[in-house]
Structures are given as structure tokens and as C-alpha cells.
Amino acid sequence: MKFSLLTESSDLSSSPLLITLLHPENIPQQLEQYQFNQLDKWLEASQFQAKFNDLQPALQQSPRNAVLYLAGLGDTAELSASKVTKLAQTIIKTVQKKAESIVIDLSALAEDYQATFALALAQANYSFDQFKSKKVDNKLAQISFYQAASSLNSEKLALIEAISTGQSYTRNLGNTPGNVCFPEYLAEQALELANEFPDLLKVTVLTEQDMTDLGMNAFLAVSKGSDRPGRIVILEYAAQREEKPVVLVGKGVTFDTGGISLKPAATMDEMKFDMCGAATVLGVIRALCESRLPIHVVGALACAENMPSAHATRPGDIVTTLSGQTVEILNTDAEGRLVLCDTLTYIKRYDPELVIDIATLTGACVVALGKVLSGLFSPDNALAQELISAGEQSFDRVWRMPVLEDYQELLDSPFADMGNIGGPTGGAITAACFLQRYTKDYRWAHLDIAGTAWLSGAQKGATGRPVPLLMQFLANRAQG
Q: Active-site residues: which are they?
């Protein structure tokens, strides 16, 4: 999706399809600039009152044959980011098959919501038809914005466009099936990205032999059950090399059967989304390259396939992690923390300013927060608040959950330093506590996106979250 800005001198009636956002107050006065014929008569006949999410074509004929749509914002005091997002979805659904480009007049929309609205339009315009013989008939590729006076400038629009590109890239990866998207595939995507942006990006790929040599036995305990070899992929975005990097670590389990602790068959197809943490990191790196934000970021993808086989890890097996700590693997379906713990130890060599891991880690987080908010775990109050604020700004919100010493004893094992599960209660918390044991040497936050990385049912598909959250977080740090 491409965005552009129009100036106050632009002739809005020259657009073939024009949408203007309106509040209920003084509708005729808000429409005076368009000079459409007999607008008052149409308003009287249509009873258009600019109620929220009311979208109507006003005139099929105008001085320049433009089609004007009126979009109701409703009561100003009741407007919210959720409502703005819903209106964007209604607009896209109405026009995406009718025009290649549209103009939207934002003059009536409060500045606080304009960036959210712009990104929501791009999100709603997304489609994935790579594996369909009949392609989606979606013509819309360009949206131009007009506002009489606004802080939404070309620089902000360029960042929103970059976020949209990265988020769509993440969604594409997440929606790709496991017989195509496996660990080597994600490594190839990273290498292709580096070829596209050779001045900004450096990629390193660790093979299973590299991991064996290093002693990453927790990671290998997951990947060895599959014929597809695991990979750890490091992407270094160094638009600003002299500062310590922000490190993003993504869980990339390209398909999760549960291993020997086999999952139920129902909805197991959705376990192709278990690599959405790694897909998020790739999407953020692409968005950084598109926007060229002046910040140093390292992305680490922990890519494996979790399969049952004669080589698969058994419940009760004990492994020694890269950190030297030992783990009794009580449930092979708690595999995400195993690939992450070795990766979180490995990235210490980059001397990080801070580390954020992103993972579809626990069903318990879905039970706690549903599909609305991502779970945020961090012992660092300042870092947690940065992420919460970035989530509010980007409307990609998180909710802080506890990661307290009180829960650590639930991971105790009689045979190893810890078990990889903590019992039937507080599953999202004990998973975070497990990861915390490998992050003592740097500032750290964990995002559990099991509920927000994809949708089920009729709208099944990857959401691309939390790319907007992380890009807003990085943009705030780059500007601050």
C-alpha cells in the first residue's frame, strides 16, 4: 500500500473516488469545499447523519464525475482507536474492488487517530492468495490523504508505509504452510532480505553442526525429531553502528506437532503459525530497512520444526543448555522455551542494550488475555512502560503480566536444574520465568503473542502483530 499527502490547494473533486470523514455537526458546512450540485437535497433525501461507521455514496455525478462517499465518525467524544480501525475496515471493504487509488479527507478526524487510521486502512487491504488458483480481485494500491491542518506529514506517512510493508511481510510468512515454510526457508528469506538491502543488513546462519559445537542442546532437543534441520538466523541492521543494539529474538517453530507429547488433531493446522515470533522479527527488520531508522538492531530467529520420530526427544530426557544449566524435558510440547533459551544465551555476544523475545509461547496466555492483548513480561519497569506506551501509540497493545521470584519454584525438578514446565496453573507466567533464567545479564522483556499472532475461524490468518508495536518502540528510541 502506497500513501501520499495532498496540499490545501489540491482539487479534491478531481479524484475519481473521494471519501470524506464527517462528524454529525454542521454536515453541509463540512462539505462546502466540494461544490457538488444539489448536495443539500441529497442529504435531506438520504437522511445521512454521520453516525459512526455509516458509509454512503453521496453523488454519482459531480462537476468532474467524481464519486463521493460520506463516512460518519459519530460523536467526537465517543471516538476511539477501536472505532477508527473498524471504520477503516468498512471503507476498504467497500472500495478495494472499485478503484486503484482513492483520496480520503481527514480534516474532521482528530490528529491523535490519523496514524492509527492510515495503518488500519493498509491492514484491511491485505490479502493472501499465493496458493489460490483464482487470485483476489483487489485493485486498491494508493491512498492519498488530505487535511486542512495536521501533524500527519510525509515523514510520518513514510514510517506508516514501512510498518505496513513489514507487517504484510510477516503475515505472508505466517500464512505460508509448513510444507513450504520450514527452518531453511526462513533462513533463505533472511538472506534474500540482505541481498535487497546490502548496505543495511548482515545475515549469519548457524547450522545444527554449529549448534552442536557450541553446546546448544536444548535447541537441538527440539529440532532433532524432524528431517528438516534447525537454523538460528542472525540479522544485524546497523544503520547506526556505534550504539549497543536492541536485540529481537523470535520463536520460529515452523510447525509444532507437540513432538512425542502429541497435540490433538483439531486445529493442529494452525500450528504453522508457531513461527510468527520469527516472522515478526523479519517483518520488523524489513520495516527498518524500508524506513532506514537510525538505530542498531539485531534480530535472531530460532527456527526449528517439532516432530515426533524415532529421533525425537522423550519426556523425561535431560539436556544441558548453552548456559550450562540443565533442563528435564517433561513435556515436548513446551518446545518454544527450549529453542529460545539457547538463543537468548547466544545473543549475549552482541552486548545488547536490551533484549525482547517474541513468541507464540503458551495457550495459557490466550486463556488469560484472549485475542486482544499480547502478554508482556519483564522485571524491568522502565522497559515495560516503554513497550506499553508504544502499544498504545500504535494500537498494538500489550498487558503486563507478573514475572516474579515466587513462581520460580514451580519449575523445580528432582533430577535437573529445572523442568521445562511448571504445572497446571500460571502457565504463561512459569514459561516467562523459565526464560528469565537465561536473561540475567541484560535488560529483557518477553512478549507472548499466542493470542494475537493469528486469528481462527472464518477470518483465519496471521495478523502481523506485534510489528506495529515494535516499530513504534524502535522509532521512539531512535527519535529520543
A: 263, 337
